[in-house]
């Protein structure tokens, strides 16, 4: 058995007039995440964790935010592209662990939906993905409702 581990982090600014996407789920809120794509910081951190484990760089190198092709793109499409690279590598996802840090909105009612979406996109079982959501205790930009941040660790396994 061979193993690889990767870490991903992302933070996006929260602004009014944008829909909020996290974990490929649209969440009702007065603000959304600013970004060249749909701003889904969870999916971006997840892509970076997988790319990190595969030693394939980062999401900004693969999908430059200067490229009009990715303007307004659903981040789930970026994740599907990363999954293709994963499939080519021969590695499979052992498990993923996610932390979302958001002062608002309360995300616990949406965690199940996020899990269903991400597991379906990656073709993994529910036991391979954990999602944790927490506030920033009112501190810093996240605590002041100016941003949402996410951390993801990815463990990959190859059976040879
Ligand atoms: Mg991002």
Number of domains: 1
Structural class assignment = alpha+beta
CATH-assigned homologous superfamily: 2-C-methyl-D-erythritol 2,4-cyclodiphosphate synthase
Using only C-alpha atoms, the radius of gyration works out to: 15 Å
What share of residues are in beta strands?
25-35%
Fraction of helical residues: 25-40%
CATH topology value: 60s Ribosomal Protein L30, Chain: A
For the residues shown, what is the average pLDDT?
96
CA(first)-CA(last) distance: 5 Å
Bound molecules: magnesium ion
How would a textbook summarize the main sheet?
5 strands, mixed
Biggest sheet, strands in spatial order? 4-1-7-5-6
Number of E strands: 7
User: What's the SSE pattern?
Assistant: EEEEHHHEHEHE
Q: Which stretches of 5+ consecutive residues score pLDDT under 50? A: none
Structural commentary:
The protein is an alpha+beta fold. It has a single domain (2-158), classed as 60s Ribosomal Protein L30, Chain: A (2-Layer Sandwich). It is 31% helix and 32% strand. It is built from five helices and seven strands. It has helices spanning 41-54, 59-62, 75-89, 111-122, 140-143, and strands spanning 2-16, 20-22, 25-27, 31-33, 92-101, 129-134, 147-158. The structure holds magnesium ion (MG). The site of magnesium ion has 5 residues, from strand 1 and helix 1.
């Amino acid at each position: 058995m061979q193993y690889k581990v990767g870490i991903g982090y992302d933070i996006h600014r929260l602004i009014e007039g944008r829909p909020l996407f996290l974990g490929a789920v649209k969440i009702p809120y007065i603000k959304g995440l600013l970004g060249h794509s749909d701003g889904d910081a969870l999916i971006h951190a997840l892509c970076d964790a997988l790319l990190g484990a595969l030693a394939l760089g980062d999401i900004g190198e693969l999908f430059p935010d200067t490229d009009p092709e990715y303007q307004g793109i659903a981040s789930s499409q970026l994740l599907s592209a990363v999954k293709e690279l994963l499939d080519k590598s021969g590695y499979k996802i052992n498990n993923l662990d996610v932390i979302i840090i958001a002062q608002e909105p309360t995300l616990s009612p949406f965690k199940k939906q996020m899990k269903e979406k991400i597991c379906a996109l990656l073709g993994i079982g529910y036991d391979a993905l954990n999602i944790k959501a927490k506030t920033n205790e009112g501190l810093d930009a996240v605590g002041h409702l100016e941003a949402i941040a996410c951390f993801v660790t990815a463990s990959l396994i190859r059976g040879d």
